[in-house]
Amino acid sequence: MRWRLLVLACGACGRIGFTARAGDAGDAGGDAAFAVSDATMLPATAIALDGPAGVAWTALDCGSVDARGVFTAPTVPGDCHVQIAAGAQTATATVHVELPGVAHAIAPVGTLANATGMSSERRMVYVDDEWWVFFASSLTGNGLSSAHSADFVTWAAGAFLATPNGLAGDGRNIDVAARDLGGHHVVHAALSYETGRGRYHVRGEIAGGAIAWGAPQVVNQGGVVSPDGPSVVITAGGQVVDGTGYLMTPQTPPLMPCGDGDNVIYTAAMLDTGTTSFDAIGWNQKVVWCVGVRSNARRLLSDGETLYDLFDDAQMDPQPDNLFFNVRRPDGAWLPDETTYTVPPRVFATDTAFQLEDWDAMIVGRTLHAIRRLPNDAFEHATYDLDAGGPWTMAAAPVNRGITPSSGVVLEPYGVGMLAVIISGGSSLQYAYFDGTAWTPWHDLGGGAAANRFAISGGAAAGVRPAIMWTEQTGTNAFELAGVQLP
Description:
- By secondary structure, this protein is mainly β.
- It has two domains: about 5-95, Immunoglobulin-like, CATH 2.60.40; about 105-485, Fucose-specific lectin (Neuraminidase, 6 Propeller).
- It is built from no helices and 40 strands.
- A hairpin with a 2-residue loop joins β34 and β35 (about 415-425).
- Residues about 1-35 have low confidence and may be disordered.
């Protein structure tokens, strides 16, 4: 049987697809035909080229490609050409190595300079073929604002969620998770409010470019200092877990003496099947660990039904010395269990004070990565093998680079590795790339000129090019959300 080699570019996922199929009935006899389209990628990153066994790859003019079909881009933008060979047949694909271009305004946020929150939080998700961003704003009163865009260029306002208490005083009190469940596009948000000090949880559903919110439910109350740094996650099976913030402990021995911001987890009493109402759902409370002062930042990540919880150690307020780490097994058990008075594992090898906003964590492949920026402009990178069950191991880190203090460092999967993105010198967007072994130097990400940028954040979904956003100064005490989608 004759066959056709079809070379496709998947710009959305950083791969060049290369598949073989039988020739069409209308094909004339003779040699196999090739169909080739282009791909795009950032400089100094690497993507995997998709192809059947036996295909040979050759970089013709710039970049490099290995026998596995992993193409590494040069450090400067330009077009590179990759030759694909199967027997006597060859084709050439063009890889556009480029920066994302100018940033796009998403929405004004009034006087809120940290509307994009902390790097460990997420409030940008890709749902139903659109990007959705959720944020607080001093322009809208008490509640949660949203915006959505299919192309990351033109943005429209989404439905406003009014809350009895306001969220606009601190942008670091919002975290959002999204998942398709039972054919429904579901969003869950963990929100903290300042008046009366408490935490909301709310569920929404997105369809046809609109979001329908349920009723915000108060999960718990208490505490004295912002931020809460909430985190929320939805497992593949629909289990919703909310890391909501402060709780006064001890309630029972042996948890004493403790601070007033312990790491507390709330697990929904019912699974979200895609149509489940959360307006009056019950929550099962779990004190994962009793901290010394108060924990103000956390990150919940899921791998199937297993959860990984990273949170600041709360030894100093607001600067932590390290990150603590707990695991929730699929059966619901947390390890270690705080009732045994076992200190959770530390993520980084040494206790060194760092800014609350300047860390992030991300699962890439079968490895959990954590990164932090230290006060001397150094970075630390630790890894945790999910299949082996750890332990945390210190790994190669990006070279030193000055960043705008407390502006964050965000991790996003990209190609065969991941990006670390920062704001340097007040407004310059910079990235370093990790290919699984080593980091590149820092490179300019572009994005155009801006007076000042703050609070970098990210968003990624399977099969979609990741995006970066931040809060940008537009005038005296005036700010807006802005961002770019990566090549």
